[in-house]
């Protein structure tokens, strides 16, 4: 041992009062000495017996520390003569690294693009007026917990080991049966691909059906989540304009599409239902261009007059409509189970590609959901929710008209879990959303759904998840927010006369 | 009503013995008549009273069917004179559609590429020798089920409504604490991004850190899942060759990287642990090129001599190492919870981009896992598994040497849940895997992990998940598979003399 190294080791100590075990303490001290260059490459460590005596510990403690340093390559064994710092190490290591760039590389252009269009964040602890959040008080959580625990105790291969990337077979069967009855979609279980929610489904189709630079038609205004997924996949977006009266399918400025994204059951955010003649025209356009259609049926279950309208997929004989569904709106949003219906001839490719993206839902939840559907709880819950939401929508609209009509105009919608409220000029919906947050209400501005055109301003109000007490608080919060932005205007109370002057604003066509 | 339309309606009937409700039956019949062109555009439907009399049903039944057709756009109301088929419809619709292409469009080039490199599928019902599957018999499922049910009954916003896209905060805290103690990685909870497993993490980094055409170094042989994810992201791959003795970091043919993917704790598939001097050299290379490093620490918890080796991320002062971890190997593979550790300055961008890809794990499972870690069950389970696996590895190697040494050469490994068995020439590992399947054993050929070089043939044998009885059956199955491919060679029983002749084959350097 050189004099210098001997000096270094005099400062090595261990502390018996710490919870960290002694050999670990010793390992960490020696490691930091090496990294900091206090013991240089090639220098010998004291003999284990010597260091043990110095520290007043058992020799095994020192041996364990040396073994770990040896295993990690900090030291090497000298033939016949103990242990020395690895000769390959150029020290001081940490001092050298600190000279390196202290900041990491940047994201890719694609990564920046994806990060620039996130889903709107929620603010926890506020009244949640965001669209798409279902009622939770009446969800049968004890049943759900019981089914879940039953599956969680199983150790069989189907739930623990074997991962069919396209999903749990019994769930795929249950979804196919449900779609036939409820949405008029006929497909086999092999065509159902289960993923971690509708957003994952959109991300997957954007990559599997489009190459970078190809054209996708996106509704304008249209769903932000779809826009982000398509942009992330490198698509060139073209605006398929939508008004209250319908989709502008004949727009001559539209370039030939490779993919068309639509929400025919309840247009996001306008709430319009696509007419049959438009559906047939859309199918004909897609056939002409050999394009895919993505039908995002995010809440097609909820139509309050008559039966739900049959899905576009049910009219499609040429298998070019990919149906996207989710249980996040019908059960609860953090469940993270959605699915696609794909053509039989593409099912295997989807499954294989899915194994690369990792967007598969945990089998435990899939099995529990399959039980929940098969044992009738899902249908019963939907039925109950449909009744509840129709009443809530009526009450909510009445409340809005009474309390908010000076600033916002709402009208009934046959479908969906949210209501569009158009703002009277000159309100900016982002400013309103910010103000609402100050009054404890978390709302989503509609302008985020515009990309090409000057946005119209409004709020997409998810009334479905708020109970009678909460909805009153939420509307009062909105009212206070409007007043704070426009303090000169008195509260209109039951003044219905403002309605006609808003009519013009409502007409989007 | 014209004579022709009257004739059509004579054939309309309903069947009271069916479970389908009468108005639904009537709707479906009329709908198919319209789609098939039996009732043309503009033609009148009978008055509701007339049709009700003809069918012998209540008038409300006909009104409900007409309302649904009206809602879906098949018919329109004529002012003052009943209902007619929508004049915009050009019939026959279905006959026209059947002339269209009966097959859907193709996948994108990217989609085809992703689908061409799937994760190796498992064969259910076979003895599972695939790498990466943990023991299940001793997993505390009743504890897990109890924690799960407890969380499933909660209705609070944190678990049902509010979705922080980067994960459940308490889980992120628990992971950060665990990493500091177990893997020598110091990070804050805000740097931990929870995703649906390690594959999702790889898919995410391939897109967020690389643009199409940029260079990624991938170990050769290297993990197929990483290769697929990087190719799916458009990366150009360069082979960072690995041998038993180490990583060829000085290879002059390697182009400048944008990203480097490595498995330093236990190289996949060779099992090598990266030496400290190699780790420092790798960090220096990444700094020189301002490249990212992806450290896939898929089973770094399992090292059987001494403590686990500290993660590469723990040595990195410039925040360019993205650490990828998973609970699929330590708990159970279908849990689908993995995570990344990212630089603080990039955490928000990762979270936002993740909201676009939908690769977030269900909050219910995240909350349950957080409880499982915080209440000490995870540490206890790991400790138990470490003891179990070290014994299983010893037994397994002894068994292989006794039963399979004529065909395959295995050696101990300090780390990991799988053992590499090199095949004696001229065996093709895919042929062996196919033969093994016939004898009830599902194994993974090593050649799938080669991309640039001629593959060496071997099996990556996941011994960890098989109990004493299963491992004997699995080895017997392999033995039978070898014999079926090479029937002239007698079983070597305890013939240890074959070992030396295999040594040369073992030396990969």
In words, what does this structure look like?
- Chain A is α/β, with parallel strands linked by helices and 509 residues long.
- Chain A has helices at residues 3-10, 22-35, 48-55, 59-72, 93-98, 109-115, 141-152, 157-160, 169-183, 198-208, 224-232, 276-289, 347-357, 363-374, 377-403, 429-438, 468-485, 498-506, and strands at residues 75-77, 83-85, 127-128, 192-195, 215-220, 236-243, 246-247, 259-262, 292-296, 321-326, 338-341, 408-410, 419-423, 441-442, 444-445, 458-461.
- In chain A, helix 2 (22-35) crosses helix 4 (59-72), helix 3 crosses helix 4 (59-72) and helix 6 runs antiparallel to helix 11.
- Chain A is elongated.
Keywords:
homodimer, 509 residues, alpha/beta, 8-stranded mixed beta sheet, 4-stranded antiparallel beta sheet, disordered N terminus, disordered C terminus
SSE blueprint:
2 copies of one chain form a homodimer.
Chain A (H helix, E strand, L loop, with lengths): L2 H8 L11 H14 L12 H8 L3 H14 L2 E3 L5 E3 L7 H6 L10 H7 L11 E2 L12 H12 L4 H4 L8 H15 L8 E4 L2 H11 L6 E6 L3 H9 L3 E8 L2 E2 L11 E4 L13 H14 L2 E5 L24 E6 L11 E4 L5 H11 L5 H12 L2 H27 L4 E3 L8 E5 L5 H10 L2 E2 L1 E2 L12 E4 L6 H18 L12 H9 L3
Parallel strand pairs in A: 3-14, 5-6, 5-8, 8-9, 9-10
Antiparallel strand pairs in A: 1-2, 4-11, 6-7, 10-11, 12-13, 13-16, 15-16
